[in-house]
Each structure stands twice: as structure tokens, then as C-alpha cells.
Design a protein that fits this description.
alpha+beta; five-stranded mixed barrel; OB fold (Dihydrolipoamide Acetyltransferase, E2P); 299 residues; 2 domains; NA-bd_OB-fold; Putative nucleic acid-binding, OB-fold protein; RFA1B/D_OB_1st
Length: 299
Amino acid sequence: MSTTTSRVSSNKDSRSLENVEITLLNQVNASNSKVDVTIKVRIIKLWKLPSFKIKGATHSVDVILMDEEGTKIQATVMGNYLSKHGKFLVERECVLIKKFEVGDNVSQYRLTNHKHRLFFDYDSNMMRCNDAVGSPHGFSFTEFDLFLNNALPSNFVVDIIGYLYTYFDMYDHKTQNGQLKKRMNIQVRDAQNRNIYVQLWESLAEKMQKFVDKKPNGVTVLILQTGKFTFSGGKAYVSSAFHGSTLFINDDIEEIIAFKRSLLEKESDDSVSSRRLVSSQSVTSLQEEFSKIHNNSFS
């Protein structure tokens, strides 16, 4: 633990969060449940889950939080507590939070590698914080050799960056429960010319398809944040996962700009050729490889 002085937004609870001792997320465990523990985090991702009982109502809001060490944890705020906490739940913003429940992160839809997850209720306190906590997007990229050597546990949550090497048009995939889900299969290559297979689902598949339909020129650099890793048939796969994944395609952000710059620095006649987008028609066997593996998110 470390002691810090954080500048917080002005409100009646501010004094309780000034000059507090901050607990890092890797120190959060079940014994911390509902005690006077304070975390300082950036909200990396936020999504709403609709109510199945009340039309137009929000059942809950889930967030992925990151602390100054880059540790991430998933948290939930039920809909009936949003009147108190909703104004503090803004992506990219820093917040101080104290008093929360801690549970085990055992869901098949878990979106961080932390062994616990958090639950905020009416007793929880949140304050805006002006301190910088990690990078704005909170990326933590995994090297492709770890995928290719199967050095990670199955369903390990990862961020990847690379350039689009191969793609196949989006199609409707029938899941094991009979639902049709939009799916798009692509290959992504890193700066060392190592390829991995990537499956994009639903809105991310639609985003990728819309992009390639415009037939863009030049290298397409993309980031998939919060994907799930699997290894099957001697090949590495990363799949987008439920609501928690985000896809960046040639965005004007520091990480993509730096990756493009690294490619230019290595550029030669051979490397330029290796970065041309490969036609899906010329590698149709890859689509068969994709079809062999299980769908981690929607099957």
C-alpha cells in the first residue's frame, strides 16, 4: 500500500477521500469486503446491461478499472444505485472509490485476469480524481510469441496490436443455442511478421467489415482490447469477448502511430511486400482453420 494525496471533485464526501491510503488492485481480495479500503482507478471500459423486466431500464453497469500499476479488475453497479454513482462512471476518467463488495471472478464471461471482481452499492463512495492513472486507454499488449508458443492459459484476457494481413467477409454464425451472431475472421501480423488468427463478433465484426468495404490504401493497424486467447490445432486464436472488447482501426492514437512508425523504420522491399493485404480468395484454407475451433464467446 502507498499513501497519496489526490485532488478530487468538490462535494460533501470529498473530505473522506483526501489524504487516504490507496490500496492497489493486486492487493484486493475477499478479506477486503466492505471495509474502509480506497482504490484509485481509471475507467477503461463501460457498458450497460438492459433490464429484462422493465423496458428501457438498465439492469446494471459493468466497468473495467485499471490502477497505476496497470492491474485491471471488473466491477458492477446495479441499476438501482446509478442515481448515486452514475455521474462518476465515465470512460477514461479517474475515480477514487471506497467501500465495496469483493467476489470471485469465476464467470465464463470474465473480462480481466484478476481472480476477484468488485460490486458497488449505496454504501460505496466515489469521487472524481484529477490525477493521471496509467495511459488513457490502458492497453497492455501481449507479445505474439506467447500466443504462438501456447504460453498462456486458455481464455486468458489480452490486448493485441498488429496490422491486418488477411480477412474474410462477415457472415452469420449459428451458435450452439441456435442464435445467429455476426462473425468475421481475420489474420493479424505483428512487426516481427508473426501471425495470429482473430475472431470478431457482432458490432466489432460489423465495424471491421464496414472498414474493409471502403478498400483502404496502405497498412491497416488495429488494436483489439480485451480479447480472449485460445490455442487449438497448433494455432493461436484471439476472439473478441462479449461487451467488453474494443476495436481500434487506424485510430489517431499514440499506440497506433508508434506501431506504424516502427514498421516504417524496418521498411525494405521485402518487408513492404509482406505487409500487403492478402486476398481471402488466395488463402481459402484459412477459413477452414477458423471453422475448426470453438467459439469462446457465443457458442
